[in-house]
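Question: Hello, beginner here. Any chance you could explain the protein record under this note? Any guidance would be welcome.
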Amino acid sequence: MKKLKIKPKILISSSAIGWYGTNSDDIERSENMPNSNDFLGNLCYDWESSADKFKNFNAKVYKVRTGIVLSSDSFMFRFLKLLSYFYLLSPVAKGNQYFPWIHICDLVNIYNYILCNDIDPGPYNAVSPNISTNKKFITEFTNSVNRKIIMPNIPQFLINLLFGDMSKMLTTGLKISSKKIINKGFNFEFKNLKIAINDLNNN
């Protein structure tokens, strides 16, 4: 950076909602909340702190804390579709944990919006304003491919056995607010989970 004659005016750091940790409660997480003192929270803190160093070069630093990205090209989406076809897809644990999602098009549009508009730098949560639950997501997904949920919920002990410490990413979920980016004038194209899933499964 020091050697560059023309230094970047903007840096967009791709962070994650892991900043807020892996608890399950009804507290709405906004960007002004501190990071959680766990693995994911500290990892995101270190990542964003590295991005903040670009402020020393007078760059505007934006940190996009991204939720679960729904994309038809992702391994997760293709794997869930495969499970659905064989009626093997079911909610995880109780299924009432929050599922903070975002359609890939809205995520791309957020990056573009930041680049093209003079909004205040800082962190922005990139999640749909209508957060779902794990059970609702699985239900809408199976309906989208003309299947039903016939299997019982995947028990938490099995998830813990298979994924160890990473199991919390599946069995917990946070209520994340996207009001900040909305208040800056951004409009989400996909606010409805059913419409978002149908769009991805039909394209």
The mean pLDDT is 93. The chain has eight helices and nine strands. The two ends are 41 Å apart (CA to CA).
